[in-house]
Design a protein that fits this description.
The protein is α+β, with helices and mostly antiparallel strands. Helices cover 27% and strands 24% of the residues. The chain is built from five helices and nine strands.
């Protein structure tokens, strides 16, 4: 390792992360994640409103409160994953039972100009095209980013895949200064 590479800082990048909670206080856990991001020196560029989604899977459990955020910071793909795990750990996330109720779930959905296919990290997130709230939120936060495997922008993919009740319009950019707890219940 040379002195230049030893002291090199990761390049500044942007990422879309999805936050979710289905254990009380749901909004409080999402707020905690935003606070973790701030303490890590990341800039919250914009966020979607918060909304309820039905839990996916066979285990009966409460609905999730979800929100997507667009962040900027000096991180790489695995650095964004470490940040997600740090927020979950601070919320006391338990990983068993698998797909069970959780205080906080943070997923890395997109990283600008990055494509990851590792056992611990897949970006774009595999659920992006199968979970309407992820695609809708990502299309609002990063409409011009390209999906490497689908050959189109996130906005184009949303227009192709979303219809019916999943076609609401949100303001294209919501000020990150808006109080986080003021989203949809």
């Amino acid at each position: 390792m040379t002195p230049d590479t030893e002291n090199a800082q990761p390049a500044c990048s942007r990422a879309v992360l999805a936050l979710g909670s289905n254990l009380p206080p749901r909004a409080g856990w999402l707020d905690l994640a935003l606070a973790v991001f701030g303490r890590a020196g990341l800039e919250i560029l914009t966020a979607t409103p918060r909304w309820n989604t039905v839990a996916i899977g066979t285990m009966p459990q409460p609905d999730f409160l979800n929100q997507l955020v667009l962040l900027r910071g000096e991180r790489t793909g695995l650095g964004w994953l470490d940040l997600a795990k740090e927020a979950e750990d601070q919320a006391g996330r338990r990983r068993r039972p698998c797909h069970g109720p959780r205080t906080l779930d943070v997923d890395v959905i997109l990283i600008e100009d990055e494509d990851w296919d590792l056992p611990e990290l897949a970006v774009p997130h595999p659920g992006l095209l199968t979970r309407p709230y992820l695609l809708l939120g990502a299309s609002q936060l990063a409409p011009d980013w390209r999906h490497p495997g689908e050959g189109g922008s996130i906005s184009e993919l949303a227009q192709r895949h979303l219809s019916g009740s999943w076609a609401p319009t949100w303001p294209r950019a919501r000020a990150a200064a808006d109080p986080p707890g003021r989203g949809l219940p």
